[in-house]
Each structure stands twice: as structure tokens, then as C-alpha cells.
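Q: I'm building a small set of examples for a reading group on sequence design. Run inverse folding on the following structure and report the sequence directly after it, with nothing in between.
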């Protein structure tokens, strides 16, 4: 019996999004009845965005004996998930299963996470990650990548270092995420370009980057932090809501190649 058939923590910890082409009704193998549609190009395993999360395909009791009802037909994120990885160990910790019995592998060293200022090449990397990740996961076109490039160019060109800042996150020396804060007015800061690579998800890093923006904004005397996002970005919205941001406005738009619902959120400091 392998560790995974005794554990199951990953199936009860992380949101699982994947290309809609992997669903059986679109020519793939994942049973459509166990998925929910996120966009016309992205599907999600049912139950993985619930609180608490638990994939609808998971059966059994965590830490004792579990199984995946669609193991042979599971989506690509599940196939790529590695036993003993940082994300695996994080899921085990969440459920008190880091070493549930002698058969469970010992923990690896905790990942080294560093937040630092951008260096040459980092700003281009931020644009690239936004373009690639949102195209792959949400089907957005290059107009979104162009928007991000414009935001980055303006940030660098008009940077006010006393009032604005950016953070690049690294995990074990590899770039893993970013966030920016810019001066919208004398009293209002704007959070921009929060993103994590898929490998960095589930480690609490998105929340940590958001907290850096809030702490910086308070220290600079801003009275409010605002941000603009899209309704489909449920993980980011959950981070904002948990920190006290409130939704103040929403409207539909046709950006990025498909209809979207844009949202404005704000946090009073």
C-alpha cells in the first residue's frame, strides 16, 4: 500500500483546475459529472473549491484508507502532483497527516521562501507568467498580456519609490510569484499583478504577498487599498476577502477574448 492510498490530503486541500478539453464530453477522460465549468475553456473538480475542500472523486477516510474513483481518468494537475513535494507535505500538515503512520514518508525540509525587490529580467518574467498562466487556465488572449505589459511599463517609467513597491517571491531560489502596489492618489494605494506559479500554490504565499502590500500601505499613511480583479479568479478573491477587502463594484466586460465580470475591491486601513 502506498502513502497516497493511505493519505488523501491533497484531494481535500487544493482547488483543481484544468483544461475543459480533458472532460470526457470534450474528448478527454475526466467524467463530466464530477466537474464544474469555470469558463468555456477551464473546468474544476467538483468539491475542490468548497470550504472545507474535498474532491467529489475521493472516497474513504483521510489518513487511513482512501481511493480516487476516477484514478485512471484523473485530470493533469492530479497526475503531475508529486508525493513528498512541498505542496504534498503542506496538505498533510493541514490535516495532521504529515506522518500518520510509519508508512508515510518523512517530511522534506521546509521550502525556502524569499520576498525581494525586482531585479533585471523580473518585470518581463511577470508579464510572461500572466500571459502564459491565464491563457492556459482561463483561455484569455494576448490582449490581457498586453494590458499587463502596459501596467509594468508605467510602473517602471513613473516609479515613485517612496510610495510604490513590488515584490518578487522565490521558492528555493526559483521565481514563484509577484505583487505590486502603486500610488493611485495621496490617500489610496492600489494592489496590482498578484500572481503565483502553479507550483507555488497551496503554500500560503498569495496571502503573504497581499499582507506585504497592506503592511507597506499602512506604513506609508495610505487610508485605503483598492484592487481590480475578475469574478472567475476565486482563489485570489478568497485571499482578499479573508483580509477584510470588500467588493464595492462589478461590471461585465468583453476583454481577453471572452465575457468577464470585473470587480473592484477595497480595504480601509
Amino acid at each position: 500500500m502506498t502513502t497516497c492510498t493511505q493519505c488523501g490530503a491533497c484531494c481535500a486541500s487544493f482547488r483543481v483546475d484544468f483544461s475543459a478539453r480533458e472532460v470526457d464530453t470534450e474528448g478527454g477522460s475526466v467524467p463530466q459529472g464530477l466537474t464544474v465549468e469555470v469558463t468555456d475553456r477551464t473546468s474544476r473538480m467538483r468539491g475542490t473549491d468548497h470550504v472545507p475542500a474535498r474532491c467529489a472523486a475521493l472516497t474513504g477516510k483521510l489518513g487511513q484508507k482512501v481511493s480516487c474513483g476516477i484514478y485512471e481518468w484523473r485530470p493533469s494537475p492530479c497526475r503531475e502532483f508529486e508525493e513528498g513535494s512541498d505542496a504534498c507535505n503542506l496538505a498533510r500538515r493541514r490535516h495532521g497527516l504529515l506522518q500518520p503512520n510509519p508508512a508515510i514518508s518523512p517530511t522534506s525540509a521546509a521550502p525556502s521562501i524569499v520576498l525581494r525587490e525586482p531585479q533585471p529580467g523580473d518585470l518581463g518574467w511577470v508579464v510572461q507568467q500572466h500571459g502564459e498562466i491565464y491563457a492556459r487556465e482561463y483561455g484569455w488572449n494576448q490582449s490581457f498580456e498586453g494590458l499587463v505589459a502596459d501596467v509594468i511599463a508605467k510602473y517602471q517609467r513613473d516609479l515613485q519609490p517612496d510610495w510604490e513597491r513590488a515584490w518578487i517571491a522565490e521558492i528555493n531560489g526559483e521565481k514563484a510569484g509577484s505583487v505590486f502596489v502603486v500610488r493611485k492618489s495621496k490617500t489610496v494605494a492600489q494592489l496590482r499583478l498578484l500572481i503565483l506559479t502553479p507550483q507555488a500554490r497551496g503554500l500560503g504565499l498569495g496571502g503573504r504577498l497581499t499582507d506585504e502590500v497592506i503592511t507597506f500601505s499602512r506604513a506609508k499613511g495610505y487610508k485605503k487599498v483598492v484592487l481590480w480583479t475578475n469574478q472567475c479568479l476565486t482563489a485570489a478573491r478568497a485571499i482578499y476577502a479573508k483580509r477584510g477587502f470588500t467588493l464595492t463594484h462589478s461590471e461585465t466586460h468583453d476583454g481577453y477574448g471572452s465575457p468577464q465580470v470585473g470587480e473592484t475591491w477595497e480595504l480601509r486601513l
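Residues 41 and 139 are 6 Å apart (CA to CA).
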